[in-house]
Write a structure and sequence with these properties.
By secondary structure, the chain is an all-alpha fold. It is built from 4 helices and no strands. The protein is elongated, with a radius of gyration of 24 Å.
Length: 140
């Protein structure tokens, strides 16, 4: 084989490999974006359900919607989200008689920061100390 044929073969093989790698990486990035969109949908549903149970006593339907949304997070959340969610749910459970608002806000903050991290939000945290709090729009 002469040098021209070898160079042509190497060029063709290199082009095929480059195209295959590019295709693979593009599809992987697309799958990651789709997965992040699925997670965002679940996280939004959870936050909406959480917002509905803040303030005056929630209805049974609101509590069920919240429980369903929280349980769905167990399917899609990162390990950090799962740990933070479990801590938050344990603290806010009706069976927990020692609940405090300070602990609630601390655990809510940890949960929301874990969700933001899972969604790839950069930067994730403010430079100064910050705590999330839920606000109710329900009349008293």
């Amino acid at each position: 084989m002469n040098g021209t044929i070898i160079v042509a073969i190497i060029t063709v093989v290199g082009s095929i490999v480059a195209a295959a790698i590019t295709s693979y990486l593009t599809k992987a990035k697309d799958r990651e974006a789709e997965w992040r969109a699925v997670k965002l949908t679940h996280y939004k549903r959870f936050m909406t359900a959480l917002s509905a149970i803040v303030g005056p006593k929630p209805t049974d339907a609101e509590r069920i919607t919240f429980a369903d949304a929280a349980n769905d997070i167990f399917l899609v959340g990162s390990p950090a989200v799962l740990v933070a969610l479990r801590g938050y749910l344990d603290e806010t459970a009706d069976s927990n008689t020692g609940k405090t608002l300070d602990r609630h806000d601390e655990l809510l903050t940890a949960l929301i920061f874990a969700i933001r991290e899972d969604l790839g939000r950069k930067p994730n945290r403010p430079d100064e100390p910050f705590e999330f709090r839920m606000w109710s729009g329900k009349p008293k």
